[in-house]
Design a protein that fits this description.
12 helices
Length: 336
């Protein structure tokens, strides 16, 4: 049974990586496609290629999350928690994609695992543990603060960019910013691979530790390749429903503001993954940066009704994924 559950977790983790790429590719391409810096096909292929490279660059964040973030009960209970958490997060991801609403795969995954862990504690007393201080300051707090920081930085960057380019013609400014967006689209996808690819790696490594197949000290190469390949495949297929929401229904932005949003969100993903070793949601950082840059045109350019709907989805993500994770764990409990 343990081998069956381990195989199921690895398979679901691969499916989650594919859904992550499919769901989140809109963050990489939305502004570039909206401002016609890139064609949709080229933008998606660029995002897929750089997501693959990004996921292969580092495993430090995944190893940190495995070592200092969450600790699972050994054996079938720990595997059941991971499987239920993945299923809960995956169901929420499919729903939000169908509704065309950007949501955080990271929030959903953490919520799903914690919800499944809570159900496990009710059933048999075994639950998810870890350093509460590390979990709050290295995982929860960055995820909560990053949208605010992205909004403020993008809003401020528009001022600086507008002042720096004040003597250039609009045509020249737009052409230069479209070229910058082409580069930043690939850079953001690289940061997305660095951040989100390591989520899947961490989940699989946690499963291997729970099954007694790994000490968790090193990331197996096949795990890194597996996560990177499925994340890139999901990105290549592309989720255009969410792209339409970000590019057209939420706010209308010009190339300068699109470049500002991409620059801020890209920098945050790299700093979070490499320097600070904290997980950041690519969806939250990009969406907040787009709203911040768009609001600097005039606040009326941000469509408040659509923004409220997105905020409701964000607030509900961890809670709903946690509830689904708990339900799935209870359904799986006869096998554990």
């Amino acid at each position: 049974m343990e081998l069956f559950l381990l195989t199921a977790v690895i398979g679901c983790a691969g499916g989650f990586a594919f859904l992550n790429g499919f769901h989140d590719v809109s963050n990489s391409v939305a502004t570039a496609v909206r401002t016609r810096a890139l064609t949709p096909t080229i933008a998606v292929l660029l995002a897929a290629a750089f997501s693959l490279v990004g996921a292969l660059l580092s495993t430090s964040l995944a190893l940190f999350l495995t070592d200092a973030g969450l600790r699972l009960p050994p054996g079938t209970t720990g595997l059941g928690i991971l499987l239920a958490g993945l299923l809960g997060a995956g169901c929420w991801g499919v729903f939000t994609w169908y509704r065309g609403k950007p949501s955080s795969s990271t929030h959903a995954l953490i919520g799903g695992i914690i919800g499944a862990g809570g159900a496990s504690q009710l059933m048999n007393g075994a639950t998810v543990t870890g350093s509460e201080r590390v979990f709050f300051f290295q995982i929860v707090l960055p995820l909560l603060l990053s949208p605010v920081v992205a909004y403020l930085l993008a809003y401020a960057l528009v001022f600086a960019a507008t002042w720096a380019l004040r003597y250039n013609s609009p045509r020249r400014v737009n052409r230069g910013n479209r070229m910058a967006q082409s580069v930043l689209a690939g850079a953001f996808a690289l940061g997305h691979g660095l951040q989100d690819g390591q989520r899947t790696m961490a989940v699989i490594l946690l499963a291997l530790v729970a099954a007694g197949a790994s000490s968790g000290a090193q990331m197996p190469l096949w795990v890194q390749l597996f996560a990177a390949a499925l994340l890139a495949c999901g990105s290549a297929f592309g989720g255009w429903r969410i792209t339409h929401t970000l590019a057209n229904r939420l706010v209308r932005i010009d190339p300068l503001r699109g470049m500002s949003a991409q620059g801020v969100s890209t920098a945050m993903l790299f700093i979070g993954a490499i320097s600070l070793q904290v997980p950041l949601s690519s969806t939250h950082t990009m969406t907040s940066a787009i709203v911040g840059a768009g609001a600097n045109q005039r606040f009326a350019s941000v469509r408040g009704t659509e923004l409220v709907r997105i905020l409701i989805v964000w607030i509900a993500t961890a809670a709903v994924a946690g509830l689904l994770g708990a339900i799935f764990f209870l359904a799986l409990s006869p096998l554990l």
